[in-house]
Amino acid sequence: MPKKERKRLQVVISDEQDALLTRTAYELSSPERLISKSEVVRLAIEKIARELGEGQATGHIEEYRAILGHEGAGDED
């Protein structure tokens, strides 16, 4: 069975963000299955997109924008 074709995205993250990813992956992992940092990122993308699509994130939108505005001040897409 061929692998699913996936797009690759390279982003620059801070040491603090990397530590958060590592800690989250560790906490989500179990003895039966280790969770990678990439899987944590994919989960976060799906969770935020689902919340926005279902209208659940309305209380968090300004918080998300503030975080992105603060951290992404020098970033380009």
Q: Tell me, what's the shape?
A: globular
Q: Taking all residues together, what is the mean pLDDT?
A: 85
Order of helices and strands: HHH
The value of Rg in angstroms is 15 Å
User: Count of helices?
Assistant: 3
What structural class do you assign from the helix and strand content? mainly alpha
**Spans of 5+ residues with little confidence (pLDDT < 50)?**
none
Distance between the termini: 34 Å
Helix-residue proportion: 55-70%
Q: Characterize the largest beta sheet: strand count, sense, and whether it forms a barrel.
A: none
Number of strands: 0
Strand content: under 5%
Q: From the structure provided, what is the oligomeric state, counting identical versus distinct chains? A: single chain
Protein name: Transcriptional regulator
Organism: Deinococcus aerolatus
